[in-house]
Write a structure and sequence with these properties.
There is one protein chain. The protein is of the alpha/beta class. Helix content is 43%, strand content 16%. It has helices at residues 3-6, 12-23, 39-50, 64-78, 96-108, 123-131, 154-160, 183-195, 234-237, 252-265, 271-281, 285-308, 334-345, 359-362, 374-384, and strands at residues 26-27, 91-94, 114-119, 135-140, 142-144, 149-151, 165-171, 199-203, 228-233, 246-249, 312-314, 321-325, 347-348, 350-351, 365-369. Strands 2-10-9-8-7-3-4 form a 7-stranded mixed β-sheet, with helices on both faces. The chain has a 4-stranded antiparallel β-sheet with strand order 11-12-15-14. α4 (64-78) runs parallel beside α11. The protein is globular. The structure holds 4'-deoxy-4'-aminopyridoxal-5'-phosphate and glutamine. 4'-deoxy-4'-aminopyridoxal-5'-phosphate is lined by residues 31, 96-98, 122, 171, 175, 203, 205, 233, 235, 241, 246. One of its GO terms (cellular component) is cytoplasm.
Length: 387
């Protein structure tokens, strides 16, 4: 294994899900729903397979039906904010958001370029920046026990920009903290990007999982259309994480660049699922609000249960994750806590330290996923209250 990758080892999600299988513990670690998405969307995939649609290499940028559906989705949800994209030149279908992140970084970075990422960050960011030869520059989101959430210090962000900064890798709603960046914070990111001529890759895979307030795409801010690569995922929006269908929207120039990398990573993304996701994107608004309301109720169950169990809970405004502080329970090392939690309580969680360069900053925090059936969450909470 080369030096660029050696420091990353095995992803924490694989490690913790294997631990859950081995111990039979409830898996609130890796973020995947324990019920599949809509039946009619599954049927659409079956139909596509059976009818021979997408069983041979689909077009490189994605099938036209899906690109059109992505453009229509952007228009439906963000048209009032001025967002639009041309399905032929401004949409690229990828193998999940994971490939979109990798291809964007590989396409846009020169070796030695600096990339600012909000810490804690989703684990593939660091590895992909490294594979692209970039240097990551973390800007730490700080927990604020008063407000019960995490916040971005805009001065710190501004100070992190140097002459070598090429881009900001943003994520809102934010995994693992559940923070939804405010309009003011996004406006400031946009101002900074324009001033310093930076690109922004914005990972908005949890765009429909916002429980308070609304999701504001960074691309809708003044001056950002030209410099933003926006990433979405059917895994999150339709609860089919195994299908690995994601997409990038950006200007023709940026989409073209990302496609240059994507063509040599996977060439194209799996065909039949693209037909199904095209149908899913056209589901009525009630689907999207239903998903959000369902997860909001689950957030409340888990947040209340964890609070009652003695955790300090950072109540998420978005995503399907809750970050907690374990110090009130008498622990301060999230790694040790998570490695023994299956044995002690029959529950698996993720130590947030894996999402940090400054591991000490993340040490006492642990993430729980709530994209699970209500009865599973209630059982997990009962077990944790016996800790
Ligand atoms: N970005 C973030 C912030 C995520 O949480 C995830 C899902 N784990 C991904 C990207 C990857 O998405 P996908 O499964 O579509 O590759
Ligand atoms: N995005 C999910 C999480 O953060 C799962 C990621 C993965 O398994 N790669 O837990």
């Amino acid at each position: 294994l080369n030096r660029r990758l050696a420091e990353f080892g095995t992803t924490i999600f694989a490690e913790m899900s294997a631990l859950a299988v081995r111990t039979g513990a409830i898996n609130l670690g890796q973020g995947f729903p324990d019920t599949d998405g809509p039946e009619e969307v599954r049927e659409a995939a079956v139909r596509a397979l059976r009818d021979g649609r997408g069983n041979q290499y689909p077009p490189g940028p994605g099938i036209p039906e899906l690109r059109t559906a992505v453009a229509a989705h952007q228009e439906r949800f963000y048209g009032h904010l001025g967002v639009s994209c041309d399905p032929d030149t401004e949409v690229l279908v990828t193998a999940g958001a994971t490939e979109a992140i990798a291809a964007s970084l590989l396409a846009l970075l020169e070796p030695g370029d600096e990339v600012i990422a909000l810490e804690p960050y989703y684990d593939s960011y660091a590895a992909c920046i490294a594979m692209a030869g970039g240097t990551r520059v973390p800007v730490t989101l700080r927990p604020d026990p008063e407000s019960g959430s995490y916040a971005l210090d805009l001065d710190e962000l501004r100070d992190a920009v140097t002459d070598r900064t090429r881009l900001i890798l943003l994520n809102t709603p934010h995994n693992p903290t559940g923070t939804v960046l405010t309009r003011d914070a996004l406006a400031e990111v946009a101002r900074l990007a324009c001033e310093r001529e930076l690109l922004v890759i914005t990972d908005e895979v949890y765009e429909h999982l916002v429980f308070e307030g609304e999701h504001l795409p960074l691309a809708s801010f003044p001056g950002m259309r030209e410099r933003t690569v926006t990433i979405g995922s059917a895994g999150k929006t339709f609860s089919f994480t195994g299908w690995k269908v994601g997409w990038v929207t950006a200007t023709p120039e940026l989409v073209g660049a990302v496609r240059s990398a994507k063509q040599f990573l996977t060439y194209v993304s799996a065909g039949p699922f693209q037909y199904a996701v095209a149908e899913a994107l056209a589901l009525p608004d009630s689907y999207y609000t239903g998903l959000r309301d369902d997860l909001r109720a689950k957030r409340d169950i888990l947040a209340t249960g964890l609070t009652d169990a003695g955790f300090q809970v950072f109540r998420p405004s978005g995503t399907y994750f809750i970050t907690t502080d374990i110090r009130p329970l008498g622990f301060d090392d999230g790694f040790a806590f998570c490695r023994t939690l299956p044995e002690r309580a029959g529950v698996v969680a993720i130590p947030n330290a894996v999402f940090y360069d400054h591991q000490d900053q993340g040490a006492p925090f642990v993430r729980f996923a709530f994209c699970k059936q209500e009865k599973t969450l209630l059982e997990a909470v009962t077990r944790l209250q016996r800790l």
